[in-house]
Amino acid sequence: EVQLVESGGGLVKPGGSLRLSCAASGFTFSSYSMNWVRQAPGKGLEWVSSISSSSSYIYYADSVKGRFTISRDNAKNSLYLQMNSLRAEDTAVYYCARDFAARRLDYWGQGTLVTVSS
Amino acid sequence: SYVLTQPPSVSVAPGQTARITCGGNNIGSKSVHWYQQKPGQAPVLVVYDDSDRPSGIPERFSGSNSGNTATLTISRVEAGDEADYYCQVWDSSSDQNVFGTGTKVTVL
User: Taking a C-beta distance cutoff of 8 angstroms, is the pair A104, B99 a contact?
Assistant: First the structure.
């Protein structure tokens, strides 16, 4: 059974940093691209970043480019999101999602809440 | 950047058909995926590559894509279909995933 479990969320002050993790199991992690998607309270889904299976290709939404860094450790079956210079508008539930062919996101974790507030 | 526009809400009686549109410039040239999200839950893929269904998704969910509009159709709507629905494409010109604005489906 495919499982994605996010962790690392919490309360952080504006300008602060946070590192999210996503532990994957039930599939060959090193064969799939992965994504981070976020959802602000009461709002829609917003794609944040994606990383290819070997980390060769990395993409970011304009809203986080230069502040967030996606990475992965295939030996640990883990995906990460380093978030720096956090703003109030980064407050959201952050989901990790597996990327299948043609960029469809076929499995999602349950999400971890990041709150940026003073 | 590429924009996908959905109606904010669609209301439908049980047993009837709900159609949710997703508008984008020449979206017919892209692969469109659809997600269902119920309150407090993670999104679930219900249609991929315009019209295919993942295993476990009822045949009542179908999709089409042509020109500037993609459509998710839910036939014989049930109370359990009440949820938010999002379309999504990969925009190769900007190398970004794009989600639609989302549609809340209410079963009357």
Answer: no
Q: Which residues pair with A86 in a beta bridge?
A: none
Q: Which residues of B28-42 are buried (b: 16+ CB within 10 A; e: fewer)?
A: eebbbbbbbbeeeeb
**What are B68's two structure tokens?**
């500037």
Q: Nearest CB to B99: which of A44, A100, A108?
A: A44
**pLDDT tens per residue across span A21-49:** 999 999 999 999 999 999 999 999 999 99
CB contact under 8 A, A35 and B45: no
Distance of CA B97 to the CA centre of its chain: 15
Å between B68 CA and nearest CA of chain A: 19
To the nearest whole angstrom, how far is the Cα of B27 from the nearest Cα of chain A? 14
User: What are the CB-based long-range contacts (under 8 Å, 24+) for B91-94?
Assistant: B91/B1, B91/B2, B91/B30, B93/B2, B94/B1, B94/B2
Backbone φ and ψ for A5, nearest 5 degrees, come out as -125, 115
Encode pLDDT of B42-86 as tens digits: 999 999 999 999 999 999 999 999 999 999 999 999 999 999 999
What does the alpha-carbon distance between residue A116 and residue A113 come to, in Å, rounded to a whole number? 10
Contact of A69 with A10, CB cutoff 8 Å: no
Cβ–Cβ under 8 Å, residues A118 and A16: no
Please write the tens of the pLDDT for every residue from B8-49: 999 999 999 999 999 999 999 999 999 999 999 999 999 999
